[in-house]
Amino acid sequence: MSEIEKKPIKITETVLRDAHQSLIATRMPTEFMLPIVDKMDKVGYHSVECWGGATFDASLRFLKEDPWDRLRKLRDGFKNTKLQMLFRGQNILGYRPYADDVVDYFVQKSISNGIDIIRIFDCLNDLRNLQEAVNATNKFKAQEGRGEAQVALAYTLGDAYTLEYWTSMAKKIEEMGADSICIKDMAGLLVPYKAAELIKAMKEVTKLPIQLHTHYTSGVASMTYLKAVEAGVDVIDTAMSPFAMGTSQPATEVMVETFKGTPYDTGLDQNLLAEIADYFRPYRDECLANGLLNPKVMGVDIKTLLYQVPGGMLSNMVSQLKEQNAEDRYYDVLKEIPKVRKDLGEPPLVTPSSQIVGTQAVFNVLLGERYKMATKETKAVLRGEYGQTVKPMSQEVIDKVIPGEERITCRYADLLDNEMDKLEGEMKEWKQQDEDVLSYALFPQVATDFFKYRQAQQEKVDMTQADTKNGAYPV
Ligand SMILES: [Mn+2]
């Protein structure tokens, strides 16, 4: 490459979202994040991923924090850096499909509270489940002067997932009005030479920037980035070293050093990165000491490559088998997983399809007869409610599990009535800000518990002040 062909690789920093979601169950609190924001803002990252995914649920449920308040505080601190979130298409950040008015309003509030880039994915890669979120982003972009829609394809392996599949998806994503494409390899299945092939093929069919997101689970991630960068990828996702590797992303400092002095030089300052790493390192030690960070997730899990199953799905499966005193059936279930996946149209294995396939495989093995019992979610997948799968589903399984039932081929959300008014009606006694309705929409019970907690905290403060002269401090 000559001087003219310089192509600095851009970096999305994940330490405030995926890195702690993948390593310490999403437990990093806002108050720990804020003191380092000013330094992170000076790095020159392409973006900082800091919201969405499991952070919303974990904030309300475990940290007793308002996720919207976290976003506003991060926005205040990051004056020069784009903020990025992860968004599950029609499921938003929750676990059921929502009507379009909720998707719209969530996108609007995410952008108006500070998000720049919304990474949107669907567990079946059914683009119809992403269109509303993309449209909403484009609509509010004009209004808020901020907002980019990035469509993420869940990367997976299987007969249906050929280069032709990925390139035709890339073309469709460009047509649907997205600003960029992400290849989201949640399980670390994308190996280096395959990554080069994939990126090269996609670059040939689309002008949209391509971002690669992977996890170190199977041990190949930094090599995969190297080959992807050489093949033309534009942005890679990395995490500051104290929260890198294992089930998280490759380390930011390592990737920066790798490309130093090459046409791909990121230009990021290693001294500044070192200061930031110094801030996160004692917290990592603390998490190791209190057990939040299990050294087990820091190694190479080669089973991920052998069985093509995400690490998190394997650990779920082990705990389900333990509960049933059936740990000896581990390998039977492992063999059953690809069969169930095939029956259900060979979907990628990512939340929630990973849980659906995994749980059904456990049932099939433990009950001694395949589909003797099917979960509610398996039935919904077979009815077409989650969307269209890349391959047809097994007719035999359809006939056994949902005999005579109607199956849908339309976009499921087309069947849903608007629901914002109803949701607001249900929770209005707790509403202190417009965003509270959305917290409630996603996690009705958890949000209500949080609202009660918030109110108790507020009342405690007021009562303490009111009663100071009597010396009474009711709690
Ligand atoms: Mn991820």
TrEMBL record:
TM annotation in the entry: none
Gene3D superfamilies, A to Z: Aldolase class I (3.20.20.70)
Single GO MF annotation: oxaloacetate decarboxylase activity
Source taxon at top rank: Bacteria
Family annotation (InterPro entries): Aldolase_TIM, Carboxylase_cons_dom, PCB-like, PYR_CT
Keyword Hydrolase set for record: no
GO terms, biological process: gluconeogenesis
Pfam families reported in the protein's UniProt record: HMGL-like (PF00682), PYC_OADA (PF02436)
Cited NCBIfam families: PRK09282.1, PRK12331.1
Protein name: Oxaloacetate decarboxylase subunit alpha
Organism, as annotated: Waltera acetigignens
